[in-house]
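Working notes for the structural subgroup meeting. M.R. asked for a predicted model of this chain before we commit to crystallization trials. I am recording the input and output together here so anyone reviewing the notebook later can reproduce the run.

Input as submitted:
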Amino acid sequence: MKAEDLKLVVKEKYGAIAKQNVLSNQSSCCGNSGCCGELEFSMIGDEYANIEGHNPDADMGLGCGIPTEFAQIKKGDTVVDLGSGAGNDCFVARALAGENGKIIGIDMTESMIEKARENNQKLGYGNIEFCLGDIEDLPLADNTADVVISNCVLNLVPNKDKAFAEIYRILKPEAHLSVSDIVLKGELPEKLKQAAEMYVGCVSGAMQKDDYLKVISNSGLVNIKVQKEKPIDVPDSVLLNYLSPQELIEYKQSGIGIFSITVYAEK
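Returned structure, recorded in token form:
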């Protein structure tokens, strides 16, 4: 698929998720909208329930980590969340940055922006804003952010070089990012790579771990550290939607792995 086609797939499917009941999404990678076929498993995300600022109405169960855990957000910081969805990580970031901080959520899906704004209106926070925008062409000025966060979104961006170049541009000098994402070790079978629905399900859009870290480095960011890494075991019932039984055996014996990582880097 072409980059623009992939963006349309992502936008359409996540738009459908945004219109669902929040609870129907929390036990799955991408909810029950059909965007992942039967890809409904909960081991991708981390548990937010006891984290200050967590808002159940804004937690769509779409993440693969907790980027704020390692983001070193300080009181008064300006924090930009890329792919902010219904606003969950923004509300957690706001609890860390305080009333004098500023939180900006960016998402390319109109219905997600609407949901996030509704959630924020209920909470009454005046220092959070949600903006429609493309991560490859952010609607923000240079040197805007003290911290950039993102949760299981950058793997869905077709041009990751552009995405990280934009992150570098909007970061203030000596500012930093903390992003959670899906990466691979070894090559996924071609059938999984080409499945757009699996792509939206956070897997087929993923890069090799070393290549992902290289893209970050090539953007100019430094002091790159993988703060957390955990394997993601996709159930056989899901993989059999894309692989024959024999292909599944070969895949499981190959040593290929899908991982969630949280990465820190500085400008």
